[in-house]
Amino acid sequence: MPDGQRLFVGGAWVEPDGGHYEVVDPATEETVGWAPEASRDQVHAACAAAREASGPWSRTSPQERAAVLGRAADVIASRFVPYAELARAETGATTGTARAMQVGVGVARFRRYARVESAEWAIPPQINEAGPMGRAGVMGALAVRQPVGVVTCITSYNNPWANPAGKVAPALAMGNTVVVKPAPQDPLSVYRMAEALEAAGAPPGVVNVVSGGSVGVGEAAVSSPDVDMVSFTGSTAVGQRIAEACGRDMKRQLMELGGKGAAVVLDDADVGSAVAGIGTTFSFYSGQICTAPTRVLAQRGVYGRLVEQLAVYAGRLKVGDPREPDTVVGPVISAAHRDRVESYVELGRKEGAVVVAGGERPPLDRGFYVTPTLLAECTNDMRVTREEIFGPVVVVIPFDDEEEGIALANDTDYGLIDYVWSSDVAKAFRVARRLRAGGVGVNTVGRNMEAPFGGFKKSGVGRDVGSYALHAYSEVQSIVWPG
């Protein structure tokens, strides 16, 4: 589409009312393509199309819906290299990340939900001693997962494949229809996903994609009376506004919001393992990931070694063109976000933190790059330790004993994923159970992709991933009968 990407509404590719806006490669500052700017009317038309398709799609068999998802995965896999190249250009991710963690995870998630699972389960019969008209006898019951209806999926800029696939695939598997509003910075990949679903046989209106840089596009996708549920990944501030809008109409919500992951490193930890795990913040998506262990709590016995080794680790990472095979750290998403991250580093200096590594813009002619930065001698009341920076910046706070470490970890508005490092596994699990976070990694930053994912406190509402996503995109209905 050389003249600009079209919207996908009701099974048709539609010219946007608001024209097009430029999508910029964060590494080169060159134009990747032209994204469509939907009007509110077009967003409402997409929601209406999803509503019209909702009934027929919900009545298709789970096997038929799974087959569409499986074919979509095959289409994406067949176009893997160009899709990964587009994702790299839109996001600034390294080639390896774009292939493995963006498009690769997208394919895996479609294949995961092409596996049919039972949507109903029996409840043990209950002997009731009394009922409205006397003795009720034995009552049988069945719990059934039913589709919610129309789901608006608002996705994040840091992963335009894995994040929308993690919403769209389970929502469709459960019999919902979707309206996807991708992040304005990198929406073109989501339109490729829509193309794959269209080629796989998804009926018109089952999947709709509307984009735009205007706040009004997202507002219309949330407030439409045709929408039954909103699934959002992004900042806590935006999530709060969406929740307020959903609350007025009692719309279902799934919110994956901000994080300030605490990495509790105890005196008996394998420091090398901790450094390797925490160091992913410097490199993976250039720190633009809500699960990153950005707030390191180091017990006094390992504090010095940990800071020293993290500084060495950060200093060895190549920052530069994400197309080069030896590049580890690519750019952040935009010039504005680079400025924001740099302002936090300067704020940390003013607050009394010591810049042990990084802290200066890398000497590159173009691109929105931030040097991996380590701030030591921090305290838990500094803004750099309390607020989500969303960049390659790690802060380190010393603590004396286990109780203090747990208290510091929990002294935050967030609670998405925390981490514990200790060679004593029993101790590590004991600490993990006391952390107020939706997930805890013990001696790892790895994920189990069937484990429930979501946050405590201001890190979100609800759980998804694996079978939990099927619950998230469904309503549970009870059917009761006399035994």
UniProtKB/TrEMBL annotation:
Origin superkingdom: Bacteria
User: Which InterPro entries is this protein grouped with?
Assistant: Ald_DH/histidinol_DH, Ald_DH_C, Ald_DH_N, Aldehyde_DH_dom
Which Pfam families does the entry mention?
Answer: Aldedh
Q: Where is the Aldehyde dehydrogenase domain?
A: 13-479
The alphabetized UniProt keywords are: Oxidoreductase
The record's PANTHER family line, in alphabetical order, gives:
ALDEHYDE DEHYDROGENASE-RELATED (PTHR11699)
**What is the protein name stated in its UniProt record?**
Acyl-CoA reductase-like NAD-dependent aldehyde dehydrogenase
UniProt source species: Streptomyces pseudovenezuelae
